[in-house]
Design goal:
By secondary structure, the protein is an alpha/beta fold. Helix content is about 40%, strand content about 15%. It has 15 helices and 13 strands. The model is unreliable at about 1-15, about 260-265 and about 265-270 (pLDDT under 50). Bound molecules: guanosine-5'-diphosphate. The site of guanosine-5'-diphosphate has 20 residues, from α9.
C-alpha cells in the first residue's frame, strides 16, 4: 500500500493550500466489493451534491448515510452509492467530510473521482487527511503517526501498541508534565525581569522534584523502545553454522514448511532466505545463510560475505552445529568469531539423534579431562570457553540440544527465541515507544533535563536554567507536534498512502 512519494512532494506539504477540498480513494486500488472515495474540506458536501441524485446532503445531519446515484456530465448514472456525511468539526479531519461508497470497480471509482475533481476538489496528497486532522487539533503528531503504524500492523501486539498510541498513549503524560514544566519556565523567566531585585518566584526544590519525575518517565519510555521496536519491526534472526550443520532443516522445522532447499551437498544454501516466524505475536525474521566456511568458489565468497553482513545486523543469532562432525574446539572458534555485543546468541547442538551421549556442558568446560579426545579436532582450547558466562554479565548464550530432522526440542527453541527478546517483566499495558523520532526526541529532552538538574545543583543563574528548560520543552513538544517544522511534517505524512 505504501506508495513511492517523490521527495519534492513530501517537501511541499506545509506549503500546500490547506483550505481547499481534497478527494482520494480511501480503499486499496483494484477491484473489490466496494470502494470508498473520501472528500474533506469546506465544500466536500457541496461538491458531492453537484453530481448526486438523491437528498440534499447539505441539509442532512452529521453522521448519517444516504442512498443515491452519481450522475455523469452526460446525464447518465455512473453508479448507485451510499454517502456518509460528517460535518465540521465532528469528523476525522475536523472539516466537512463525505465518504462515498461506490461499487468497487476501478472504472467506476476513477469516473467518480474525476467528477469530484471537475466540480472543484483536488487530489489529496499522501497523508493529507491525517495531516489536516493534526492541524485541526484532532490528534497530536504521535497519534497521527500511530495511524500509519496501525494500518501497517501485521500482528496482534503491533496492532495493540499502535492502537493505544493512536488513542493517546503516552502523549497524555508527556503533555501534563510538559505543561508543569512550562509553568516553571515562565516563573524563572519572570525572575529575569526582576534581575536587580534578586527574587525567586520558582521554588527550586519543587522544580528539581518535577524534573526528576519527568526524567524517570522519559527513561522508562526510552527503555521501552527496545521492546517497541521488536513489536513493530520484528526481530532479525540469523541461523548460521557450517555447511551441512542442518540450518535449512532447522529453518523448515521452525516454519513447518519445506521452504529452503535441503541438500546433502555441502554449501548448497548459496544465498540468504528470509522467512517470518510468529511466536506469541512477535515476528522473528529468520534468515538462513550460506555456511560459515572458507569459500570454495566465487559464488560462495559472496554467500559468505552476505552471511557475515547478516550476522552483524542480527539481534538474535542461532548458531547450529552437527554434534558428530564439528568438534568442540571448532565450535568454540566459530562462536568466538560470531559473538557480538547486542546480539543474543543461541548455540544449538544439532543431530543429537546421531549421538545421544553428547553433553552440551562440555562446551562450557572444554578442559575437563573427562571429555574423550575424540571430541576435539586439534587441541583442547587453551583459554576458558567463550560460552562460559562472564561473572559480571547476567546474560550468557543459551545452549540447547536439537534434532532438527525429527523436530526434537523445536518448541523449546521457540520459547528460547521469545524469551531472548521479551523478558518476563515486560508489561504490554505500559506505554511503549515504537518510533525512532520519538526515541531521539526523548533522548535529547533527557540530556537537556540533565543540564537543568546540574545547573540547579551548581547554582547557575536563572537565565541558564531557563534556557535548558526551554530546550527540553522544545524536544518534548516535537513528539506531540507542538513544535513542528515543514520538513518534519513532510517527512511524517509523506510516508502515508494517498487517501489516509
Ligand atoms: P545446511 O547446509 O546447514 O543448511 O544443512 P541442511 O539443513 O541442508 O542439512 C544437511 C543434512 O543433514 C541433510 O541431509 C539433513 O537431512 C541432515 N540433518 C539436518 N538435521 C538433522 C538432524 O537433526 N539429524 C540428522 N540425523 N540429520 C539431520
Amino acid at each position: 500500500m505504501q506508495q513511492n512519494i517523490r521527495p519534492e512532494t513530501a517537501m511541499n506539504y506545509a506549503k500546500n493550500d490547506l483550505t481547499g477540498t481534497i478527494a482520494a480513494l480511501a480503499t486499496p486500488p483494484g477491484t473489490g466489493a466496494i470502494g470508498i472515495i473520501r472528500l474533506s474540506g469546506d465544500d466536500a458536501l457541496l461538491i458531492v451534491q453537484q453530481v448526486f441524485g438523491g437528498k440534499n446532503l447539505m441539509q442532512q445531519a452529521s453522521h448519517t448515510v444516504h442512498f443515491g446515484t452519481i450522475i455523469g456530465d452526460d446525464g447518465q448514472i455512473v453508479d448507485e452509492v451510499l454517502v456518509a456525511v460528517f460535518k465540521a468539526p465532528r469528523s476525522y479531519t475536523g472539516e466537512n467530510v463525505a465518504e462515498v461508497s461506490c461499487h468497487g470497480s476501478p472504472y467506476i471509482l476513477r469516473q467518480v473521482l474525476e467528477l469530484f475533481i471537475k466540480k472543484g476538489a483536488r487530489l489529496a496528497q499522501p497523508g493529507e487527511f491525517t495531516l489536516r486532522a493534526f492541524l485541526h487539533g484532532k490528534m497530536d503528531l504521535s497519534q497521527a503517526e500511530a495511524v500509519a503504524d496501525l494500518i501497517a500492523a501485521t500482528t496482534k501486539s503491533s496492532h495493540d501498541v499502535a492502537l493505544r498510541q493512536m488513542r493517546g498513549g503516552f502523549s497524555h503524560e508527556i503533555k501534563k508534565l510538559r505543561e508543569e514544566l512550562i509553568h516553571f519556565a515562565s516563573l524563572i523567566e519572570l525572575e529575569l525581569d526582576f534581575a536587580e531585585e534578586d527574587v525567586e518566584f520558582a521554588d527550586r526544590s519543587e522544580l528539581k522534584k518535577l524534573v526528576t519525575n519527568i526524567q524517570s518517565l522519559i527513561h522508562g519510555l526510552i527503555r521501552s523502545f527496545r521492546l517497541g521496536n521488536v513489536i513493530k519491526n520484528g526481530v532479525p534472526t540469523v541461523i548460521a553454522g557450517r555447511p551441512n550443520a542442518g540450518k535449512s532443516t532447522l529453518l523448515n522445522a521452525l516454519l513447518n514448511e519445506e521452504r529452503a532447499i535441503v541438500s546433502e551437498i555441502a554449501g548448497t544454501t548459496r544465498d540468504t532466505i528470509e522467512e517470518v516466524l510468529n511466536i506469541n505475536g512477535v515476528e522473528f525474521r529468520l534468515i538462513d545463510t550460506a555456511g560459515i566456511r572458507e569459500a570454495q568458489d566465487q559464488i560462495e565468497v559472496i554467500g559468505v560475505e552476505k552471511t557475515m553482513e547478516k550476522v552483524r545486523q542480527a539481534a538474535l543469532l542461532v548458531y547450529v552445529f552437527d554434534v558428530v562432525e564439528t568438534k568442540i574446539d571448532e565450535v568454540l572458534a566459530d562462536v568466538e568469531s560470531l559473538q557480538k555485543e547486542g546480539t543474543h546468541l543461541i548455540v544449538a547442538c544439532n543431530k543429537m539423534d546421531n549421538l545421544p551421549s553428547y553433553k552440551p556442558e562440555w562446551l562450557l568446560n572444554p578442559n575437563d579431562p573427562g571429555i574423550p579426545d575424540f571430541f576435539f579436532a586439534n587441541e583442547r582450547p587453551p583459554h576458558p570457553s567463550p560460552l562460559t558466562p562472564h561473572p559480571s554479565s547476567l546474560s550468557h548464550p543459551y545452549l540447547i540440544t536439537l534434532s532438527a530432522k525429527n523436530g526434537m526440542n523445536i518448541p523449546y527453541l521457540k520459547e528460547k527465541l521469545y524469551s531472548a527478546v521479551i523478558s518476563e517483566q515486560v508489561n504490554l499495558e505500559s506505554p511503549i515507544v515504537t518510533n525512532v523520532r520519538h526515541l531521539e526526541a526523548l533522548q535529547k529532552a533527557a540530556e537537556s533535563l540533565d543540564d537543568v538538574l546540574r545547573g540547579l545543583d551548581e547554582g547557575v543563574t536563572s537565565d541558564f536554567v531557563a534556557m535548558d528548560i526551554r530546550r527540553a520543552l522544545a524536544f518534548l513538544g516535537e513528539i506531540l507536534g507542538e513544535v513542528s517544522t515543514e520538513d518534519l511534517l513532510g517527512n511524517i505524512f509523506g510516508k502515508f498512502c494517498i487517501g489516509k
